[in-house]
Here is the input.
Amino acid sequence: MTTSDTHRAIDAVWRIESAKLIAGLTRIVRDVGLAEDLAQDALLAALEKWPESGVPDNPGAWLMATAKHRAIDTFRRTERIERKHEELGHELESRQELAVADMDAALDDDIGDDLLRLMFMSCHPVLPREARTALTLRLLGGLTTDEIARAFLVPEPTVAQRIVRAKRTLSERKIPFEVPRGPELAARLSSVLEVIYLVFNEGYTATAGDDLVRPALCEDALRLGRILAELAPQEPEVHGLVALMEIQASRLRARTGPTGKVILLLDQDRGRWDQILIRRGLSALERAEKLRGENGPYALQAAIVACHARARTAADTDWRRIASLYDALAAVTPSPVVELNRAIAVAMAFGAAEGLKILDTLTREPALKGYHLLPAARADLFEKLGRYDEARTEFERAASMTRNARERELLLERSRAHAGDLPQQ
Amino acid sequence: MRYMTLYKPGTENDMPTEKEMAAVGQLIEEMAKAGTLITTDGLQPSSKGARVKIDSTGKFTVVDGPFTETKELVGGYAIINAKSKAEAIELTKRFLKTMGRGESEIRLMQDAPAFDAASAPSSGRAAQKPRGKAAARA
Here is the structure.
């Protein structure tokens, strides 16, 4: 094995082991920043040793043992300093206890629980949203700061700073390393789900830039979701989210043409939809429903995308069911965006005029100001009703509002389609 | 990225022992928990299968199993999610360690560009707008 082969192998081991490593260490040292430093130290040690000694048989255990030794060294050092300063308060006592505690036993505890605790910690509501996503991708997705920066199109120092601040906040606010119980659980879980779905959406419809899709982010989110589904299998909304992501991801291939041009759902070649992901998605949805979670917001959204996945052709789509699922979704999570999508479904099920009625109630909605999908949807319905002049204006308006180059291209193309048409009265 | 790994045990597939089944079951559970395993299955002995060939004239030949060149026999497959070939190799090592014999062929699936990390963006503009839920989007 050459040195660069070994480095690639170490990268791979890191990708596989880092989350478990950091989670296990966080439980021991009770500080996620310190835990990550220790894990990084172990990684450096591997980079030093493995090119000579070869990759050990059980690389994860090697990294954990190395990090554990560093942890003990750190404790001893702090203890000495603290003794010097005669700060023999409660903190030291607890640290001594920890240092003395049998670490092997601590490490052999269910690592899954630690991963789950780490997920709740990195998605904690005391952190700003961007910090939650960055920290989660870093600690649980095994991404480097540079990879996160590239994925979100922000400068690397910005991401690095977000992560540093987030770790400091967690430590200063003494956020416990635990899975929340009781009434707190639902709110905290929804924050975890939100972070994962934000990552997915950022990949699925890139907010800015030249690519519509950044698939690597979709994969990262899917992986996080699949992990969470195994760690918290009793939570229906986790399966709802996984179902939603699996089914949406099944269409990734079909969403863009060979030149990167956007292809809308109803125009996609369904033969290119990924049947493995659809099957996984439908079975995740089934799990959510078995847990009586069919009315959860993610499960409802998953049920909606499942309607598309089950339809062999666009014409087979059960729009009435989709419209009624949107009614249910609007009841549990009323929002202008849900209303917009409900309008589209209603238009498909009961005619463009019915959909337009709902959209007209949304044009003054402040939350949708600057949201290009509203004029795009209105344009679409105007077009169906033969009101081409209004359609053109709305397509142009939508095009001027999107920050995604691929979407703009499609919208302008559709507006041009009616450039020569006479206005209809 | 997704890789397909084809496992060749090096011998005709015998029925796995209970111990082997348990070990593989545990590995599958671990990989599912790590979010890396997308789908997997084992294949029954080649005596239950056949080979179908077409020649340049369009004529078919069908040969029933068992096949003699046992070294090349595929015993099972998995589709895994990995960030790099190195990660796929590492995951495959863990599988082979569990099996204790044989070899696996690792192949990148034709998913690209849908699941291709190399299609990462090159521009550097900021994206800070929080996204709403828009389930009906394509």
Summary: Chain A has five domains: 1-109, 110-174+184-212, 233-317, 330-366, 370-425.
